């Protein structure tokens, strides 16, 4: 008959988050820097089988009863465990630094724990410490990470315990097990009603029906034999042919105290937390094990020397090493905030729009040029969508009139000359949501029609730096928002962003009207220029300057106060800002993104501002218009489509090629010479031609003067 | 809708009925619950139990250089399976005073004590596999589907104060009472009606969560 070595299922550990919370509390309040051992208790219970649906129906995985620790483990008295559970005593040793944790003398600690168990066996003959355990920890309280390692010292046996491969371990309650269903019920009742818990116990059957549960300490080699007595223990293992770890020390106990009569033992692995009902049988397993392959024990000498012990828990890779629990998502308030924001957005997707690509949105980096009324509202709306990276560019400081209309600023920001708007806005965003990556850059955007003075040379130097910085910022972000308060300041970013193929969202305010638009994209080099019935306007969309026949010029000098501050109806800014952000979201959901065409008017209702909601220029979130003009007096939005103009000062190929080949020099020309852009694009000729045509017209004058 | 006393009664009846019945697949969801009360304040009782789920996503391995390469030679240790991980879930049925219905609260964590993130929760076997659309396969279809995914939220357990996930109960009453119309018999006693109400609630819950 083949004999196999009895292999014990290692005991897995289970740490409840409350254990870590309690350990943290203990360290902060009591232990502080002490690494003294603290007594704790743990519980383990019988294992269960749970269905592994991924492996196919009817596949079960043994989920071992784990040795569990939680907050209550630190309490002095563990309440009496339920049937099928056992309590184990242990110690936890918390180190103060990761170095100390790593350098801890694991062998020494382990051997000390094993010695303690051995000593208690020999001196007290008690089973109380057979299932003790050791836990070493290091709590990184800044990062909320807990490094730990459990050890369940178990004495090895030499020679090893064996069992006959056939029948091996068999189910209790079957005829072969020699324990009837009736007897098992009696055992169950006795275990259930006993005043003290029995992690280990003896089952004595004096005659065929009387059966008694007794303490291991009552064992008597003279009267307890394999025919009369079965050795039992609460077994956390769920594997049919592997008994659980706690059995090892019980066997060592018998070998130490009764070496002459315990080389062959009948064991019951108790795995029933409740009486089985119906057809399912008892889960407990019964088997007869013996020492050495041939059942002949060693001469029995030297039983008082402590055997070798093993039992450090293996980590997730199955290797001997510590484990780590990262509780930051639960304890770090910043992570909690991130999680909540994330959950909120996911609900939108789960409940309403499964096709919504939220990851794309949160990963989109937004550059806001202008941290004023529009900038503040745009930033908050972006944060609401979970956008993670927002950068502000602004050259001015917070002034006293700002806080009421610019929701990121407070009164105190106006004092002492006023804080720089860009940095202040970024800081305020972080106060709302610490998880946001917000930065502010104070810099001036040079404008056409505002010449850069030739001296002192530092001014030119600074301008060069600012332009380079702006180029870098546009390069490193995905979307550029033009939210400034003048027309000409939008020119430079328009050109740069088009050259770098970045999405430009443009918003501008009038007194009671607004413009929100997305700039068209540069046609791809190898794309076939398609023209539809409206001359390609729907696919090649224009920019802010496409409808101008003059270059942007100085519109700021000599303006009156109301023109300078762009006095607007207060409600307008948030409407325009929100519209711009929501329009961007629609663009992002379109597969062509920046190249999404404008929607077509509806076939059935082309004149009444109705659009085909399922055709091109639409996404899961709805239409993606090119331009929206809002009229607050009428509470109305108009959709407008503007084709790209081949002589545009902002987006024509001529201008872009000049920028790409000449760089800063071209820009300097544009800033300094008001006619440069007109000459470059040929707008000047157009103007001349127009003037000439006007002169050429033969105004026919009727003879006879007026009729009225 | 249930009043607080009705909820308490229904829960106690449930625990009683299934304490001594035989286990079967159909009644798995209803068994194993314990009724617990707050130690000092009355009318804050709730049902609770522990459950295990499987996950293929294992805890991240953090490499910690140990100064000594620890080895143990042990022929008597059975090999352990490292492919699947058992997750522990504490589940509660709590009374929602605002909506006057039972409300399902739960926590789920790895064996090292780390709670699961939203993504891990979704890829565990806790949620029924068919109710969640796979977000990676976004299409640009414009028809809006009526997803049955419940409002998963985070909140503190009303009695223990511990942070949990919960399913927002706002639409529960409507669904449960719709279903009850089909099965209820007028002649049932008050107790029987309460128990059916709670069982039906579990049925609805079971369509979303694998209350194994």
From TrEMBL, chain A:
Keywords tagged on the record: Autophagy, Cytoplasm, Protein transport, Transport, Ubl conjugation pathway
UniProt entry tagged with the keyword Cytoplasm: yes
Active-site annotation: 565
Molecular function (Gene Ontology), one example: Atg8 activating enzyme activity
InterPro entries for the chain: Atg7, Atg7_N, Atg7_N_1, Atg7_N_2, ThiF/MoeB/HesA, ThiF_NAD_FAD-bd, Ubiquitin-activating_enz
Cell compartments where the protein resides: Cytoplasm; Preautophagosomal structure
GO cellular component: phagophore assembly site
Coiled-coil region: none
Keyword Protein transport tagged: yes
THIF-type NAD/FAD binding fold domain: residues covered: 348-593
CDD domains given in the database record: Apg7
Any Gene Ontology biological process: protein transport
One Pfam family this sequence matches: ThiF
Signal peptide segment: none
Ubiquitin-like modifier-activating enzyme Atg7 N-terminal domain boundaries: 6-331
Known role: E1-like activating enzyme involved in the 2 ubiquitin-like systems required for cytoplasm to vacuole transport (Cvt) and autophagy. Activates ATG12 for its conjugation with ATG5 and ATG8 for its conjugation with phosphatidylethanolamine. Both systems are needed for the ATG8 association to Cvt vesicles and autophagosomes membranes. Autophagy is essential for maintenance of amino acid levels and protein synthesis under nitrogen starvation.
Subunit composition and interactions: Homodimer.
UniProt-listed NCBIfam families: E1_like_apg7
Family: Belongs to the ATG7 family.
Protein name: Ubiquitin-like modifier-activating enzyme ATG7
Automatic annotation (TrEMBL), chain B:
One GO process term, biological-process aspect: autophagy of mitochondrion
Keyword Nucleotide-binding in record: no
A single MF term (Gene Ontology): Atg12 conjugating enzyme activity
GO cellular component, one term: cytosol
Keywords from the UniProt entry: Autophagy, Protein transport, Transferase, Transport, Ubl conjugation pathway
Pfam families assigned: Autophagy_act_C (PF03987)
Keyword Transferase appears in the UniProt entry: yes
PANTHER family listed in its UniProt record: UBIQUITIN-LIKE-CONJUGATING ENZYME ATG10 (PTHR14957:SF1)
Family statement: Belongs to the ATG10 family.
Protein name: Ubiquitin-like-conjugating enzyme ATG10
Organism: Lentinula guzmanii
């Amino acid at each position: 008959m083949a004999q196999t070595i009895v292999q014990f299922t290692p005991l897995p550990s289970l740490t409840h988050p409350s254990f870590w919370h309690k350990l943290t509390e203990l360290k902060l309040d009591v232990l502080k820097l002490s690494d003294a051992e603290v007594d704790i208790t743990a519980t383990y219970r019988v294992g269960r089988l749970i269905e592994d649906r991924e492996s196919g129906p009817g596949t079960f995985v043994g989920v071992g009863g784990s040795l569990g620790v939680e907050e209550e483990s630190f309490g002095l008295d563990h309440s009496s465990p339920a049937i099928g559970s056992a309590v184990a005593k242990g110690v936890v040793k918390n180190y103060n630094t990761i170095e100390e944790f790593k350098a801890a003398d694991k062998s020494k600690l382990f051997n000390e724990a094993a010695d303690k168990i051995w000593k208690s066996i020999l001196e007290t003959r008690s089973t109380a410490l057979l299932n003790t355990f050791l836990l070493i920890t290091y709590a990184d309280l800044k990062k909320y990470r807990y490094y730990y390692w459990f050890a369940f010292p178990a004495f090895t046996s030499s020679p090893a315990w064996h069992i006959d491969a056939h029948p091996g371990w068999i189910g209790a309650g079957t005829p072969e097990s020699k324990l009837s269903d009736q007897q098992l019920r009696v055992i169950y009742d006795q275990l259930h009603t006993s005043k003290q818990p029995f992690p280990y116990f003896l089952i004595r059957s004096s005659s065929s029906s009387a059966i008694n549960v007794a303490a291991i300490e009552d064992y008597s080699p003279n009267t307890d034999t394999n025919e009369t007595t079965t050795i039992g223990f609460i077994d956390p293992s769920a594997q049919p042919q592997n008994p659980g770890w706690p059995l090892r020390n019980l066997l060592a106990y018998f070998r130490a105290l009764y070496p002459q009569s315990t080389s062959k033992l009948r064991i019951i692995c108790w795995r029933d937390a409740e009486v089985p009902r119906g057809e399912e049988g008892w889960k407990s397993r019964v088997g007869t094990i013996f020492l050495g392959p041939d059942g002949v024990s060693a001469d029995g000498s030297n039983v008082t020397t402590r055997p070798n012990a093993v039992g450090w828990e293996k980590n997730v890779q199955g290797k001997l090493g510590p484990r780590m629990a990262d509780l930051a998502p639960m304890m770090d308030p910043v992570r909690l905030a991130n999680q909540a924001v994330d959950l909120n957005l996911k609900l939108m997707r789960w409940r309403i729009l499964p096709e919504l690509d939220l990851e794309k949105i949160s990963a989109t980096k937004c550059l806001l040029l202008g941290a004023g009324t529009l900038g503040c509202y745009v930033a908050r709306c972006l944060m609401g969508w979970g956008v993670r990276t927002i950068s502000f560019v602004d050259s001015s400081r917070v002034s006293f009139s700002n806080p009421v209309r610019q929701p990121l600023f407070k009164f105190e920001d106006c004092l002492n000359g006023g804080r720089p708007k860009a940095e202040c806005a970024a800081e305020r965003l972080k106060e709302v949501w610490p998880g946001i990556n917000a930065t502010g850059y104070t810099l001036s955007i040079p404008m056409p029609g505002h010449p850069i003075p030739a001296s002192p040379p530092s001014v030119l130097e600074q301008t060069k730096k600012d332009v380079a910085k702006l180029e870098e910022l546009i390069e490193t972000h995905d979307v550029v928002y033009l939210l400034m308060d003048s027309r000409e300041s939008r020119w430079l970013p328009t050109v740069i962003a088009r050259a770098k193929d970045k999405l430009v969202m443009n918003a501008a305010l009038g007194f009671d009207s607004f413009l929100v638009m997305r700039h068209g994209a540069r046609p791809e080099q190898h794309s076939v220029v398609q023209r539809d019935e409206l001359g390609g306007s729907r696919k090649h969309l224009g920019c802010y300057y496409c409808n101008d026949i003059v270059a942007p010029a100085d519109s700021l000098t000599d303006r009156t106060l109301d023109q300078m501050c762009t006095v607007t109806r207060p409600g307008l800014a948030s409407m325009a800002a929100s519209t711009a952000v929501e329009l961007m979201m629609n663009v992002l959901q379109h597969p062509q993104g920046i190249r999404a065409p404008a929607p077509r008017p509806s076939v059935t209702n082309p004149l009444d501002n109705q659009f085909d909601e399922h055709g091109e220029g639409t996404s899961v979130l709805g239409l993606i218009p090119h331009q929206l003009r809002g009229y607050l007096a009428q509470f109305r939005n108009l959709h407008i489509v503007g084709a790209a103009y081949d002589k545009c000062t902002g987006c024509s190929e001529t201008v872009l090629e000049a920028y790409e080949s000449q760089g800063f020099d071209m820009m300097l020309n544009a800033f300094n010479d008001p006619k440069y852009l007109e000459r470059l694009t040929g707008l000047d000729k157009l103007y001349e031609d127009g003037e000439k045509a006007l002169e050429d017209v033969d105004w026919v004058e009727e003879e006879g003067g007026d009729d009225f | 809708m249930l009043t607080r006393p009705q909820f308490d009664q229904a829960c106690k009846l449930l625990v009683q009925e299934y304490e001594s019945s035989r286990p079967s697949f159909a009644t798995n969801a209803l068994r194993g619950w314990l009724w617990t009360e707050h130690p000092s304040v009355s009318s804050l009782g709730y049902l609770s139990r522990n459950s295990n789920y499987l996950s293929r996503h294992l805890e991240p391995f953090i490499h910690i250089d140990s100064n000594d390469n620890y080895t143990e030679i042990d022929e008597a240790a059975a090999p352990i399976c490292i492919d699947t991980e058992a997750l522990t879930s504490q589940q509660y049925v709590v009374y929602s005073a605002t909506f006057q219905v039972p409300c399902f609260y739960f926590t789920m964590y790895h064996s090292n004590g780390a709670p699961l993130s939203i993504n891990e929760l979704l890829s565990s076997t806790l949620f029924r596999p068919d109710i969640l659309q796979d977000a990676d396969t976004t299409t640009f279809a414009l028809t809006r589907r009526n997803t049955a995914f419940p409002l998963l939220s985070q909140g503190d357990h009303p009695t223990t104060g511990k942070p949990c996930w919960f399913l927002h109960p706002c639409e529960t009453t409507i669904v449960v009472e719709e279903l009850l119309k089909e099965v209820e018999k007028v002649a049932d006693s008050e107790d029987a009606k309460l128990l059916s109400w709670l069982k039906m609630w579990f049925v609805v819950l079971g369509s979303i969560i694998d209350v194994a």
